[in-house]
Amino acid sequence: MQFKEKSKMADAKDLNRTLNRLAHEILEKNKGSENLAVIGIRTRGEFLAKRIADKIREIEKKDIPVGVLDVVMYRDDFRVKHKLPAVEVTDIPFDIDEKILILVDDVVYTGRTVRAALDALIDFGRASKIQLACLVDRGHREMPIKADYVGKNFPTADDEEIRVKVTEIDDEDAILLVQRIEE
Amino acid sequence: MNLSIKHLIGLEGVPREDLDIIFDTSFSFREVLERPVKKVPTLKGKTIVNLFFENSTRTKMSFDLAEKRLSADSISFAASSSSLSKGETFKDTIKNIHAMKIDAVVMRHPTPGSAKLLSQFVDAVIINAGDGTHEHPTQAILDMMSIKEKFGDFKGLKVSIIGDILHSRVALSNIYGLKTMGAELMVCGPPTFMPKGIEHLGVRVTHNIMEALEWSDVINVLRIQMERQGKSLIPSLKEYREVFGITREKLEKIHKNLTIMHPGPINRGVEIDSEIADSEHSIILHQVLNGVASRMAILYLLVGGLK
């Protein structure tokens, strides 16, 4: 499938401001960083989670644990995809029992990734709360899942997708709207 | 991410790209084995048959565990309890399995080539868990994963396989796999244990244990297979230990630390002494853990996804 860039919805500065706001909202809702931990969903969610944790540290002057979750093993769309997704390493180096977990993903779309992530997290222990933060909500949910913290709402058309780029692995920080090209 | 192979019959001809994918995926699955809940729903709804026409404890347990950890449904046949003891032929067994509409078969069989034969007649993924003296690919993959875990890379790494090379499917699979990954290989054992023409596989051959120990970074010590022909090809177990057994006396002479591997089960005091098998340089128990992780990876890569 080929895509072309349609428009840049956010540049590096916008993205940073949005993450700042998300960090503040998370702290406001949870009344500080007590018991808080951040878990990013691979791939882009990992880097966004680390940035949010950094911002929380700057504001509260306290470290919070950060984990990375790969949900491929829990996905329900193996049977419909032609290409087997690569399984990457999950790394949650702390006990999640009694923690308030902030699950971070770049884009929330059908809700199936979040569903898989919740299943995975439940296998790690019993968190006291799990809240969802996403940079972009692009609509089209197929499951009853709603983010607690939303960076941007970008409703998309059927042939459009949202691409989040982060400098850790991409050439820039940006949110792009791309359109599928018919071949 | 898809492998180029559809079955795992042997490592002969399996490309490096496939092995790299299998290793990466294996390390991802190993993390699951460290979790409080060591089970993922990845192969839910898939059915796997474990067909063991030959005794096996750890390979069978390892596959069983890998299947359970992936939430696959699995059933096991053991030769002693199956209809084979009632005289059913291999062909009939195959036909019956075929009719059962399963997704994968893990098979161990005393006849070389049996896994390949099965793959030609059954519409399911075939994973060879040892076919006679031919190949035992999952053992070699877990061996290589354990080497990769310790050394990071295979390039230029010197690995010796010591013991009964002639009857060892572990040796053959390791040779194919390690050559593909760029390691250098030596085989060492008494002439009666050395297959003719083994050097054509691109391995060094020696009958001198000290030469092998001095040359190597890693030694993979094979079991003397008491239940096979092995025993009649050496004068006595005691003499074998004297000449080829891995003992402290021999290792002290080489002034370097070798990494010690063994596919198990160990004949302590024959091919390797207890104190060496249990020493800090032994990665034998890593091999066991990596066995479950790599079998999970292989099952995921071959059985997961679209049918």
What does this structure look like?
The complex is a heterodimer of chains A (183) and B (307). Chain A has helices at residues 12-30, 44-60, 112-124, and strands spanning 2-10, 36-41, 66-69, 100-108, 129-137, 149-153, 160-165, 174-181. With 183 residues, chain A is an alpha/beta fold. Chain A has one domain (13-75, 86-157): Rossmann fold. In chain A, strand 2 (36-41), helix 2 and strand 3 (66-69) form a beta-alpha-beta unit. Chain A is globular and about 50 Å long. Chain B starts with 15 loop residues before the first helix and ends with a helix. With 307 residues, chain B is of the alpha/beta class. In chain B, helix 1 crosses helix 5 (137-151), helix 2 crosses helix 11 and helix 5 (137-151) crosses helix 11. Chain B contains eleven helices and nine strands. A five-stranded parallel beta sheet of chain B has the order 7-6-5-8-9, with helices on both faces. Helix content of chain B is 39%, strand content 15%. Chain B has two domains: 16-135 and 288-303, 3-Layer(aba) Sandwich (Rossmann fold); 137-285, Aspartate/ornithine carbamoyltransferase (Rossmann fold), CATH 3.40.50.1370. The chains are: A alpha/beta (183), B alpha/beta (307).
